[in-house]
Each structure stands twice: as structure tokens, then as C-alpha cells.
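A reminder from the course coordinator: this example appears on the midterm review sheet, so study it carefully.

Given structure:
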């Protein structure tokens, strides 16, 4: 089999320095067996596997063996293959437990829906010979939004007045993209700040990873809404404002002593969402949006469009300061 791979490499990549040639796979069911120098064949297309992608969260590196960085041999383009991987797990929001699961075909539907809409990652899907849905994704060159925000080398007050208005405006556009999904009865399913990327060159905000789904019949879009609000809290605070973070920022004890249980997130209990208590120059119109995520709130947003109305009003106020 390696001789077939060798012929493919020499045909499409004659200057390649590769000395190891793997196997050709047409069935991706055993995705952990597919590794560097192997070729995944989908129809008449061939994808040379270069490495497994990794996810970095909480200071840890977690290999994603079902996500492969590849070279599309026919075009020479670097791409990502997401192979079919199924898992089910519970998510807790306050007292509620929500069943979440991966759905490759749900992600494939969204890729078709958002084709040409550069607010989202782009790609297409094909089935392998075993019927597994494989998504072929274009690579977004850029950085995660939270990394971009964290790297802005200024104090919070300067950040809020000089950088945040433009960030909020672009985030509003990203929220409109999620509203577009909802209007077509689709949900992102895994809205986190590391799933919103800032594209190099264009500065565009682009959503990635749509394969999570969840069962929540009372409001099928609730997790997406919670995710958007959690990102907004991060953007306003320029950090996850936990007690540890506040101590590292040398926040005055007179401020810390005012915090109570109602100032923290109902989703992630150690994160402060009443950011105005920390930075008193934040306008009420913005802080009120954040407080919808607090454990003390009895009213929650029912749709992304409701958040958009309040964010647009607040943006006008912030730009007039």
C-alpha cells in the first residue's frame, strides 16, 4: 500500500522531502489508526495526513485524533479533515442538566447553510466508503478572539475606552451570525470564546466548530445564548474575573468586599459578571446585559435578537462617552 502513497506524493508533490509513506484509507471508522504520511481518499480526492490537531484549554494540550491537518493533494491546499466521532455528555447550568452530543451531519448541514458567509468557517462534507461523514474544512489563519484581547498591552480603562467599542461592534456582527443560524432552526451548539477566531489580515470574526448539539426543549437555543453572554462578559472584563484573577490584578479590598453571591455567573459559579463593581466606568446599559447571566437574575434573554437590541443601544452609548 505504501507504494501507492509514494506514487501519489511523487505525482502531486514531486519536491516533497517525505521519506515515510503510509497507507491509503477509504474508511475512517478507526480514525486513531490514521496518522502521519497516510492518505485519506474521499471519492476522487486524496488528503495526505500531516498531524492530529490539538485543543489547548486551561493550560493543557488535548490531542483530537479525529481531526487531522492534511494536504489536499489535487490542489496542494492545506485543510482540516474532521472525521466522524460520537460522544454524549451532560452539561450543567445552575440546577439543570442538559444532554449534549456530537453530530457530524449537523455540522455538515451548517457548512452547506453558511457557504460563502465568511462569518463562519468554510468547507464541505463527503461520506467515506463506510458511510462516515467527513468534513473538509478550510483553515482560518488567525488567532482566537480571547488571545487577541488578552494580548492588548494596556490597562483596562484604556482598553475599554479605546479598543472595546470596535471589539463590541464586531462581536455584535458575530452574534448576528448566530441569529442567522437560529432563524434556520440550527444552533452552533458549542459557543465558547476559543470558537470565535479573528482572521489575520481582514480582522473578521469567524465562528468554528458546529458539531455539538443538545436537547433543551423549553428553549432550543438557550445554550447558544448563554455562550454569547459568557463571551461578552470576558470581552468587557478583558479576562475571566475570578477572585484569583482579581487578586492578581491587585483589586482593592474595598471593591472585593462588595462582591456577593448574586454578582457571580449562574453558569460558571466562580466568575464575576457584575463587572461594574470592579470597573465603575462601565455604563449601566452594558452591565445590565451581563447581569442577565448572574445567579441573582430571574429574567433571561429568550433570543439572540433580544441581546442584539440591548448591545446596539449600549454600543451607541459607549461611543458617545
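Designed residues:
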Amino acid at each position: 500500500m505504501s507504494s501507492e502513497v509514494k506514487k501519489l506524493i511523487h505525482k502531486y508533490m514531486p519536491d516533497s522531502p517525505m521519506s515515510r509513506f503510509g497507507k491509503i484509507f477509504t474508511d475512517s471508522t478507526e480514525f486513531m489508526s490514521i496518522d502521519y504520511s497516510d492518505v485519506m481518499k474521499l471519492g476522487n480526492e486524496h488528503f495526505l495526513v500531516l498531524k492530529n490537531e490539538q485543543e489547548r484549554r486551561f493550560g493543557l494540550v488535548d490531542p483530537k485524533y479525529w481531526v487531522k491537518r492534511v494536504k489536499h493533494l489535487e490542489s496542494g491546499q492545506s485543510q482540516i479533515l474532521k472525521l466522524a466521532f460520537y460522544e454524549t455528555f451532560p452539561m450543567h447550568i445552575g440546577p439543570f442538566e442538559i444532554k449534549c452530543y456530537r453530530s457530524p451531519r449537523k455540522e455538515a448541514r451548517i457548512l452547506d447553510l453558511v457557504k460563502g458567509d465568511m462569518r463562519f468557517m468554510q468547507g464541505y462534507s463527503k461520506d467515506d466508503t463506510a458511510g462516515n461523514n467527513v468534513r473538509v474544512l478550510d483553515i482560518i489563519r488567525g488567532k482566537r478572539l480571547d488571545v487577541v484581547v488578552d494580548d492588548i498591552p494596556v490597562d483596562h480603562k484604556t482598553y475599554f475606552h479605546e479598543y472595546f467599542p470596535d471589539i463590541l461592534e464586531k462581536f455584535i456582527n458575530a452574534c448576528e451570525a448566530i441569529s442567522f443560524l437560529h432563524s434556520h432552526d440550527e444552533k452552533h451548539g458549542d459557543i465558547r470564546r476559543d470558537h470565535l477566531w479573528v482572521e489575520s489580515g481582514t480582522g473578521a470574526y469567524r465562528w468554528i466548530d458546529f458539531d455539538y448539539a443538545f436537547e433543551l426543549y423549553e428553549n432550543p437555543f438557550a445554550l447558544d445564548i448563554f455562550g454569547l453572554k459568557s463571551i461578552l462578559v470576558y470581552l468587557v472584563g478583558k479576562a475571566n474575573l475570578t477572585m484569583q484573577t482579581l487578586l492578581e490584578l491587585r483589586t482593592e479590598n474595598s471593591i472585593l468586599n462588595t462582591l456577593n453571591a448574586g454578582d457571580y455567573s449562574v453558569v460558571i459559579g466562580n466568575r464575576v459578571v457584575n463587572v461594574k463593581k470592579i470597573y465603575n466606568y462601565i455604563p449601566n446599559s452594558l452591565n445590565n446585559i451581563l447581569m442577565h447571566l448572574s445567579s441573582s437574575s430571574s429574567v433571561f434573554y429568550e433570543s439572540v435578537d433580544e441581546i442584539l437590541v440591548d448591545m446596539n443601544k449600549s454600543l451607541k452609548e459607549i461611543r458617545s462617552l
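The chain has a mean pLDDT of 93. Residues 162 and 319 are 10 Å apart (CA to CA).
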